[in-house]
Amino acid sequence: MSLITRTAFPLPMQYLGSKQRIANWIVEEIKQQFPATSNLVDLMSGSGAIAHEANMRGWNLHANDIQPYSHRVLKSAFETPRTELTDIIEWLECGSLDEIILEKDRSRARTALLEEDEFFASASRGDFDWKEYASFCNNFNGLHTSATGNYDLFVAYYPNTYFGVRQCLEIDAIREKASQSSADVATHLIGALISSLTFVSSTTTHLAQFLKPASQSTALNLINCRARSVQEQVLKRLRLLVDYPMPDFATTSNLGFEKVLIGCRFDPNETIVYADPPISKSTILATTTS
Questions:
Q1: 126 and 45 in a common domain
Q2: What is the pLDDT of residue 290?
Q3: Number of domains in the chain
Q4: What is the 3-state secondary structure (H, E, C) of the chain?
Q5: What order of strands is seen across the sheet that includes strand 39-42?
Q6: Is residue 12 a part of any domain in this protein?
Q7: Does residue 208 share a domain with residue 264?
Q8: What is the pLDDT of residues 19-36, one digit of tens each?
Q9: What local confidence, expressed as pLDDT, does residue 4 receive?
Q10: Phi, psi of 213 (to 5 degrees)
Q11: Same-domain check for residues 76 and 128
């Protein structure tokens, strides 16, 4: 096993139930109880917190999750080559994304973007009117039937709900750029985007419901959330990815856990299979009755 310089996971996801804070303890316990371990099969890897800790110990990995969004993050962090990352980082750094956010069918949000920018400015000046902002959010909160499929999904469905207007435009534009890029760059862009969205969304930590401007304080809180730049968050994660240690051997998959177990080829004497199923009423009942 190669010596790894410890570093932060570049693509964290913020959500209720994440094992990020206790992952080091979990993997250290595995190491203490099973000192011969050199391979980890993370059956339900989620945000990759456990797989990351295994990587920091130089273990070989197989990280799986049945959720496609989780698999995108895992594939970017542990499996996909990064040789082209500097090019896309430079593209973002030079402001090229700003030049395309209002292109094509996204242009219909131009007026709403100008209105949102003025609300951001008034919040900074101290003359912010939260009732006017609430009216704006209510009047421009997406029109599902307006989605054309031409990289305008978020601006059609989610403005002034889970994300601000500019945030939606940036999300759609980044997704369009991913579609025009190589498979490796697309994987990293989408992985970084998914990670970023959990940190900029206008929600509570469980992500189940978006917040609404019901008072001066809640409206200003929303303004602060929606002023966060999606592209800056993505850029931050891509920069971290450049220096993140690649495992000596790692694969990822987007399968049900049974198929992963059947196809596992690691030496069973040196392998730990870690299963961390999503919490539900049934798993809580099974835990309390076993």
A1: no
A2: 34
A3: 2
A4: CCCCCCCCCCCCCCCCCCCCCCHHHHHHHHHHHCCCCCEEEECCCCCCHHHHHHHHCCCEEEEECCCHHHHHHHHHHHCCCCCCHHHHHHHHHCCCHHHCCCCHHHHHHHHHHHHHHHHHHHHHHCCCCHHHHHHHHHHCCCCHHHCCCCCCHHHHHCECCCECHHHHHHHHHHHHHHHCCCHHHHHHHHHHHHHHHHHHCCECCCCCCECCCCCHHHHHHHHHHHCCCHHHHHHHHHHHHHHCCCCCCEEEECCCHHHHHHHCCCCHHHEEEECCCCCCHHHHHHHHHC
A5: 250-253, 60-64, 39-42, 271-274
A6: no
A7: no
A8: 888 899 999 999 999 999
A9: 63
A10: -80, 95
A11: no
Is 127 within the bounds of a domain? yes
> Is residue 101 domain-shared with residue 234, that is, in the same domain?
yes
Same-domain status, 121 and 260: no
Q: Residue 275: inside a domain, yes or no?
A: yes
* Residue span of the structural domain in which 262 resides: 23-82+246-289
280 and 213 in a single domain? The answer is no
pLDDT at 279: 63
Residues 161 and 279 in one domain: no
Question: What parts of the chain have a pLDDT lower than 50?
Answer: 281-290
